[in-house]
Fold:
Amino acid sequence: MSSLDLHQLVLRYPGGTAPALAGVDLSVASGELLAVIGPSGSGKSSLLRVAAGLTPLDAGRIVQDGVDVTGVPIERRAVTMLFQHPLLFDHLDVLDNVAFPLRAAGHRRRAARERAALHLARVGLSALARRRPDRLSGGQQQRVALARALAAARPVLLLDEPFSALDRETREQMHDLLADLRREDAPTVVLVTHDLDEAAGADRVAVLIDGVVVQVGTWQELRSRPATVGVARLLGGWTEVPGTVRDGVHHSTWGRVVIEPSCPITEGAAVLLCPTTHWRLTLAPTDAVLHAGPGLHLQGVMERLRIRDGRSLALVGADGTTVEVPLAAGESVPTGAAVALNAPLTRGWAVPTA
Amino acid sequence: MNRSPRALPGRRALLDRPAPPNRPAPPGPVGVLGALGVVWLVLPLIPLLLWGATDRWSLRAPLPQDWGTDGWEQALRDGALAAAGRSLLLGAAVAAIAVPLGLAAGRVLAWGLTGSPRRLLTILLAPLLLPPVGIAMGLDVVILRIGVPAPVAVTAVLVLFALPYTTAVAATGYTRVTPQWHDQARALGASPRQAHRWVVRPAMRRSLLLATGLAFLVGWSDYAVTLLLGGGRTLTLPILLGASAAGTGNENTTAALALMTVLLPATGLTLTLAIRRLAATLSLRHAGAT
Structure:
């Protein structure tokens, strides 16, 4: 087991207008699984490459188990990395692929292959030991890549979206496999992913936007308390209500909502984040409906229906924005219908305006 | 991570999907086209084979009247073996220079290591855009004036003609063998040198072989550049063949020379492929990472 600490990492690509990494600070505890999420181009893969030592830093320090390893090449670090593609060496059969790190470590061929066979058995592919990599399915190839990484016997695993190209079922099987491996070996894992379900399974999640870590926390913390509008947009499930915070209350054209004391803003322009699931929709609204009860109220027009994860969402246009409202099973709203929306918030979560 | 590997619990059975078996696929459209290609290549050889085994074959006769080896004997007396040796040297020299240059250029292009790939590509393809005879005529004058030895001039120009082929083949190879292969090998504990030796080089072997073959053939089979820049003193097999073909009544000698021009590299290619297959079998038996 091994901890990994990244201090003020800065990386600039030649010709790039903004740094790919602009002072990233991140700590991964020994045996922890940290997921790194962020929009495309936010610097996730760059972060993993500099953490691995594959890309040289412009500034910053990388400390592993209390030892500064900045500038140490990857082959001499206690780190291994899995890429999005399995990158199996097609001139070697499956067993020799898994034996590769053992051979690189100086083991004799027979010993390396014997040990590799055990690692191959761990991922359930012993029967395919003599097969060429191009004769394997995508899931099998990624499992061989995982077995090969395990054979490297390094305490830190850096995973750069290794399961993203797999179908859902195979991806879930790979998650199970990774969970099994963690139970067995407790490696420290940094997992870069676009898949929020994958991130939800991590011990902690770091959100990287424009080369900066904007929030680190458990999945529940991020889900319920996004630190910025960017994080809220990345995770989805929020309606942004622009307004102003004064005296602990968020004021907007849609209503007034008391904000929680722990909000990252106490005064000034702020976006109230209203969970999509809080909206209630009423057809043929009257004044009584439009202004009833606490929270947010607005009138809009049903624009269209959207299906997401098997659930129906009404997209309602109101005040120049579109609000997503979940519909109950069997509920339908005709396009163009005038509707009233109400989110009976007693307390809300506000963040600074982006 | 350093513990002994153990079988993991879990849904292993579900994970094991049937994979395609290791058996050759039945011939598809590609196989049929390949067969047609072979016929296309072999058909022109049939008259040459007949002429090469003929001592006398009059115009009206459907088949030779006298079978024999006069043509081959005459070709040998004309210096065919020495000419073949010179062609071999020329082909090897062209390959020895054009392949490393092509590999470097191919890697630069495929891995995006240059800011102006179009410019590099234009420079490399330029020799294919202009007729070689015209270029050779122009260069002949220049080379005579600056006193470059003929064999050097011929080799240098043929290297330029071979470069587009070697670059294209190398670039195709490096498109498959991305820098990530190198990174992956290093992430598994190999030094940069080991990563190149154990991963990149073996994976590029096929491209290397193809580029070498093509560059060799550019040197081996060249006529115009060798004739014009060599000033008739660089007597290679195609030059001898051209001279023989310009005459009449010596069709059997011309056929023997033409067959030598075709069959020697074909034999070399067959041998190389056989050795490669043997090496691949041995490397599978022998080789972990090395």
User: Anything to note?
Assistant: Strands of chain B lie at 54-56, 66-67. The CA atoms of residues 68 and 105 of chain B lie 50 Å apart.
